[in-house]
From TrEMBL:
(6S)-5,6,7,8-tetrahydrofolate binds at L123, G127, H128, L129. Keywords: Amino-acid biosynthesis, Antibiotic biosynthesis, Cytoplasm, Methyltransferase, One-carbon metabolism, Pyridoxal phosphate, Transferase. The modification N6-(pyridoxal phosphate)lysine is found at K232. NCBIfam families: PRK00011.1. The lineage of its organism: Bacteria, Bacillati, Actinomycetota, Actinomycetes, Pseudonocardiales. It comes from Amycolatopsis marina. This is Serine hydroxymethyltransferase. The record marks H231 as: Plays an important role in substrate specificity.
Length: 422
């Protein structure tokens, strides 16, 4: 088994790095990868990221560059733009942001000034750092107001969102987050934004693939601006996009360049274009719905084993589990699960009494295992492995953990991994 596409030149030039790449490929092959923000890209996307497009500087936009020699780069970027517009049904797309955080920063730069009030979801309740959390530039540069979830349901408190919006009159409202297991009500957010004359930004980084595949309602027509990464459920390279209506397009483009960035990463732009073409195919639509089916099956199986799921379950790709009742913290649980061949991350849960670096919860997602071909019928066994591992961790039974890792490797041997082949 070796990395695909082949890395023969890398192996000859720098065998140390090549060995680490091969090791990581083997690790990804041998583990059940449940990190909600991760996935496997196709070999075509991998190949696009490693092309000579990385050699070219292209500051500006197609037809308006500051460097010559853009005859092919402009075509690449225009293809990515048109494919994004078609896939999501939007009037404008900017495919240049380097990642999700700069994309969100561009939205602030376009529609707010330092010190302006902004409204976003609190990090402990499922929001993102760039939605105004205190340690982020967005929390330092703007007057950040935060909404959260209801304690009794674990679901988003839209009454609180409206009350805070009316009280603080934010310039920008962010809808979305990184640990939200339920459907986001974009129409309700849009109504609140209209009431206070705020720009609504939908951050769909986690659910972009579900939106593209029709497995989650779209924010298009509700949010004037949409930010997203291009990996996660969308199954593209590590990059980002900003989608918008025509009215807000110019401000978005100026914020990305020259506001925040220099030249775009052309190899990433090409890989984004490839991923968008893949996402437009019927098979991707099936994939998006399969992600949700797997997540629901895993949620049911974990609940049957006594795990406490925040909000009681999931509507999308993501599960947030409070381990308080299991007598173990999220961090030692995640570390034990990694040793057992199950990769996920420890995570704060709403109203968590523990510290963020040693929280009560774990976050799971099904995009990667769905790409590998695992189905709902496999989820009870995954839940069993999770349960057995946490029990073994509490008992400090490393041999039991090693046995689980061997069982997982045996299962996964039957499910090919893109980018790693004989």
């Amino acid at each position: 088994m070796t990395h695909q596409p082949a890395i023969s030149a890398l192996s000859a030039t720098d065998p140390e790095i090549a060995g680490l790449v091969e090791g990581e490929a083997r690790r990804q092959h041998d583990k059940i990868r449940l990190i909600a923000s991760e996935n496997y890209v196709s070999q075509a996307v991998l190949e696009a990221t490693g092309t000579v497009l990385t050699n070219k500087y292209s500051e500006g936009y197609a037809g308006k560059r500051y460097y010559e020699g853009q005859q092919f780069i402009d075509q690449v970027e225009n293809l990515a733009i048109e494919r994004a517009k078609s896939l999501f049904g939007v009037e404008h797309a900017n495919v240049q942001p380097y990642s999700g955080s700069p994309a969100n920063l561009a939205a602030y730069l376009a529609f707010a000034k330092p010190g302006d009030p902004i409204l976003g979801m609190a990090l402990p309740d499922g929001g993102h750092l760039t939605h105004g959390w205190s340690v982020s530039a967005t929390g330092k540069w703007f007057t950040s107001v935060r909404y959260g979830v209801r304690k009794d349901t674990g679901r988003l408190d839209l009454d609180q969102v409206r009350d805070l919006a009316l009280q603080h009159r934010p310039k920008v409202i962010f809808a979305g987050g990184t640990a939200i297991p339920r459907t986001i009500d974009f129409p309700a957010f849009a109504e609140i934004a209209r009431e206070v004359d705020a720009v609504l930004v939908a951050d769909i980084a986690h659910i972009a693939g579900l939106v593209a595949g029709g497995a989650h309602p779209s924010p298009v027509g509700h949010a004037q601006v949409i930010t997203t990464t291009t990996h996660k459920t969308l199954r593209g390279p590590r990059g980002a996009m900003i989608l918008s209506d025509a009215e807000h397009a110019k401000a978005v483009d100026k914020a990305v360049f020259p506001g925040l960035q220099g030249g775009p990463h052309n190899h990433t732009t090409a890989a984004i274009a490839v991923a968008l073409a893949e996402a437009a195919k019927p098979a991707f639509r099936e994939y998006a719905h399969d992600i949700v089916a797997n997540a629901k099956a895993l949620a049911e199986a974990l609940t049957e084993r006594g795990f406490d799921l925040v909000s009681g379950g999931t509507d999308n790709h993501l599960l947030l589990v409070d381990l308080t009742g299991k007598g173990i913290g999220g961090k030692p649980a995640a570390q034990a699960l990694d040793r057992a061949g199950i990769e996920l991350n420890y995570n704060t849960v709403p109203f968590d009494p523990r510290k963020p670096f040693d929280p009560s919860g774990i976050r799971l997602g099904t995009p990667s295992i769905t790409t590998r071909g695992l189905r709902p019928e496999h989820q009870p066994r995954i839940a069993e492995w999770i349960d057995r591992t946490i029990t073994a961790a509490a008992a400090e039974d490393e041999q039991a953990i090693e046995r689980i890792a061997a069982e997982i490797r045996e299962l996964l041997a039957a499910f090919p991994m893109p980018g790693y082949a004989a």
